[in-house]
């Protein structure tokens, strides 16, 4: 699936949070969006997912929906958004319940999600019994159960500690190696962007505008290799340079307000 | 003991002397030189011909056994036996025909026994499982009943002011058929119907008010107003409107329970997190599906809160309403007529039935809540 955003502007009352965003997401591409706090990253994601209506501008989704896809555009949330009274498998089944599926298919979708995220032995656990990393794995398994055509990830690893974050990044890499699901990945963490994304979009402080779109030339699978490090370091330097100025100014504006 | 030996850092006064036991022993020693009571005006001491010395020896043996028990909890059980024996002494003395009202030796001895019970409870309350959650509150309640019985009989409080629990129990047994009829009329007919109607209406209107914002804005201030309405004011009016039978009682209960349920349901419906609502929206769930799958389960702790508050309100409402007219049956009717006839034993028995019913309803709801909201953070095992 492709995503085409043109001249998108969004205001909350008098506050402009996004201003003139033009963005194209190609089929199977992973685009990371980074920027200082409050720059409208999450709003952009909400608009792309259709849960926030933009003030002006257009947003279009084009392309084929794969077989068995029940919810083409699917979110993965920062705080996991699990229902605490449902077990792991029932949390996954939640998104299938209103679809006409045979019992066997329903079970197959839940089971494959559990299996892929290594959750099979926790299927009857409640969310409060799981670690943060395991909870986000439930969130991912739930998203995969609908066979999505596009994933919208809202800082999915921000609530986790450093090791868990590494483990889940590997899970994401594995996911994108097997399925070429288009993804918009919002983060404020440069490491995540450099590990996972094809391109990185740097937003300015509020009102969010696109400062630069940086392409990472090394394919995802080879980014751990020594030969890739020089290029990655250079990209990181450029991204950090762009982010630093924006973050410092955003900080000062918050202090003044 | 063994702990002090193996743990070199615990060499404080705690292990040197058992100050708690000293506090128990002091009043007990003073008690030994004071009379236990009087017989025909003459004071009777510990060696005045009763079996009091045997009780004393039994208690001392129990305390010694408690001190030398290899485990603190076993010791507590031994001391508990001593406490029970000590509190049996006044019953023995009453049977011997003693007047206990001047028996300061006995009362000081019972103070010491109560202090010993304090120690026992302190230990038992630290034991996890059924002992902490059932035995400790049970012993506490039993202690209150025994204390009530002994004080009332020892100081010869007139039964018209306060009968001992044994007399209330006897009245309960003797009047069981009448009390059962009252229970059926008040609880099984009026309270249950009024409660279901009041809570049901509050719940449904809350769901409506959640969709129609002006209803919520208009109804919430009325809730404060309604909670300030005196029952004794509304009850006679409802009896005039709806007649003497259960309908007027149910109407009073509806007035009392409607708003607590409405307010709690509204608060519960607002209890879902932004991100959970986003989740439902992002999977294209409409109002109904979000309500059933997300918002009502999230509201459950609040719903139970309203139901529990209302369970006691409903009982009070029905009993008070029966003061203002009822067919010749019902708990409120029984209290008002038997008070007038100075038949206080039945009044107390009715009060006991009402108290047991109220806590039974509340307890049943609390159990149901525990079963259905075990996922909620407030339901951590205590």
Explain what this protein looks like in three dimensions.
The complex is a heterodimer of chains A (257) and B (382). Chain A is of the alpha/beta class and 257 residues long. Chain A has one domain (2-255): Rossmann fold (3-Layer(aba) Sandwich), CATH 3.40.50. Chain A contains seven helices and nine strands; from the N terminus they run βββαββαααβαβαββα. In chain A, the strands form two sheets. In chain A, strands 5-6-7-3-8-9 form a six-stranded mixed β-sheet, with helices on both faces. In chain A, strands 2-1-4 form a three-stranded antiparallel β-sheet, with helices on one face. In chain A, a hairpin with a 6-residue loop joins strand 8 (199-203) and strand 9 (210-215). The longest helix of chain A is centred in the last third of the chain and has 28 residues, at 229-256. Chain A is globular, with a radius of gyration of 19 Å. The model of chain A has no long low-confidence stretch (mean pLDDT 90). Chain B is flat and about 85 Å long. In chain B, helix 9 (176-211) packs antiparallel against helix 14 and helix 12 (246-269) packs antiparallel against helix 14. Chain B folds into two domains: 3-157, no CATH class; 171-380, Orthogonal Bundle (MetI-like fold), CATH 1.10.3720.10. In chain B, strand 1 and strand 2 form a beta hairpin. Chain B is 76% helix and 2% strand. Chain B has helices at residues 2-6, 13-16, 19-31, 52-68, 72-95, 104-124, 130-154, 165-174, 176-211, 213-227, 231-242, 246-269, 274-282, 287-322, 331-340, 344-372, and strands at 37-39, 42-44. Chain B is mainly α and 382 residues long. Chain B is built from 16 helices and two strands. Chain B has a two-stranded antiparallel sheet with strand order 1-2.
Q: Provide the β-strand percentage band of chain A.
A: 15-25%
Corresponding CATH architecture of chain A: 3-Layer(aba) Sandwich
What spatial order of strands do you see in the largest sheet of chain B?
A: 1-2
Unreliable spans of chain A are: none
Strand content of chain B is under 5%
Helix content of chain B: over 70%
Average residue pLDDT of chain A: 90
Shape estimate of chain A: globular
User: What is the name of the CATH superfamily of the largest domain in chain B?
Assistant: MetI-like
SSE string of chain A, helices as H and strands as E: EEEHEEHHHEHEHEEH
């Amino acid at each position: 699936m492709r995503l085409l955003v043109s001249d998108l502007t969004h205001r909350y009352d008098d506050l402009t949070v996004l201003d003139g965003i033009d963005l194209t997401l190609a089929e199977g591409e992973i685009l990371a969006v980074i920027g200082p706090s409050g720059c409208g990253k999450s709003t952009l994601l909400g608009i792309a997912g259709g849960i926030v209506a933009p003030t002006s501008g257009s947003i279009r989704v084009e392309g084929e929906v794969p077989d068995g896809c029940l919810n083409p555009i699917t979110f993965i949330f920062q705080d996991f958004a699990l229902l605490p009274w449902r077990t792991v498998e029932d949390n996954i089944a939640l998104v299938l319940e209103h679809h006409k599926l045979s019992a066997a298919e329903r079970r197959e979708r839940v089971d494959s999600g559990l299996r892929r995220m290594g959750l099979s032995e926790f299927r009857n656990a409640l969310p409060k019994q799981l670690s943060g990393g395991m909870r986000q794995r439930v969130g991912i398994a739930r998203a995969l159960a609908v066979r999505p055509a596009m994933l919208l990830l809202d800082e999915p690893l921000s609530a986790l500690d450093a090791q868990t974050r590494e483990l889940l990044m590997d899970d994401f890499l594995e996911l994108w190696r097997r399925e070429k699901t288009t993804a918009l990945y919002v983060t404020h963490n440069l490491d995540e962007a450099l590990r996972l994304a094809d391109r990185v979009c740097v937003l300015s402080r509020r009102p969010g505008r696109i400062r630069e779109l940086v392409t990472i030339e090394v394919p995802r699978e080879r980014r751990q290799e020594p030969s890739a490090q020089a290029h990655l370091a250079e990209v990181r330097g450029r991204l950090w340079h762009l982010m630093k100025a924006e973050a410092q100014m955003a900080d000062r504006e918050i202090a003044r307000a | 003991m063994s702990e002090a030996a193996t743990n070199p850092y615990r060499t404080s006064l705690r292990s040197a002397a058992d100050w708690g036991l000293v506090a128990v022993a002091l009043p007990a020693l003073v008690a030994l030189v004071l009379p236990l009571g009087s017989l025909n005006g003459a004071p009777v001491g510990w060696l005045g011909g009763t079996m009091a010395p045997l009780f004393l020896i039994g208690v001392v043996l129990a305390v010694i056994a408690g001190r030398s028990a290899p485990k603190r909890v076993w010791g507590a059980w031994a001391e508990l036996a001593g406490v029970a024996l000590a509190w049996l002494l006044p019953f023995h003395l009453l049977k011997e025909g003693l007047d206990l009202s001047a028996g300061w030796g006995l009362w000081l001895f019972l103070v010491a026994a109560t202090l010993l019970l304090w120690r026992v409870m302190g230990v038992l309350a630290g034991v996890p499982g059924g002992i902490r959650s059932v035995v400790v509150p049970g012993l506490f309640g039993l202690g209150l009943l025994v204390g009530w019985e002994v004080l009332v009989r020892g100081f010869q409080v007139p039964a018209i002011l306060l009968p001992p629990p044994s007399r209330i129990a006897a009245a309960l047994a003797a009047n069981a058929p009448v009390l059962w009829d009252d229970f059926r009329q008040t609880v099984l007919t009026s309270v249950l119907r009024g409660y279901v109607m009041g809570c049901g209406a509050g719940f449904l209107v809350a769901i409506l008010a959640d969709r129609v914002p002006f209803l919520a804005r208009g109804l919430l201030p009325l809730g404060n107003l309604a909670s300030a309405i005196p029952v004794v004011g509304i009850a006679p009016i409802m009896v005039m409107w709806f007649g003497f039978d259960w309908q007027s009682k149910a109407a009073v209960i509806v007035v009392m329970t409607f708003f607590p349920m409405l307010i709690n349901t509204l608060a519960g419906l607002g209890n879902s997190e932004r991100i959970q609502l986003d989740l439902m929206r992002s999977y294209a769930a409409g109002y109904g599906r979000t309500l059933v799958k997300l918002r009502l389960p999230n509201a459950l702790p609040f719903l139970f809160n309203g139901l529990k508050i209302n369970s006691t309100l409903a009982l009070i409402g029905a009993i008070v309403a029966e003061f203002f007219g009822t067919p010749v049956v019902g708990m409120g009717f029984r209290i008002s007529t038997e008070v007038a006839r100075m038949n206080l034993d039945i009044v107390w028995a009715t009060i006991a039935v009402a108290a047991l019913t109220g806590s039974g309803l509340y307890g049943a709801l609390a159990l149901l809540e525990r079963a259905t909201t075990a996922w909620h953070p407030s339901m951590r095992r205590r």
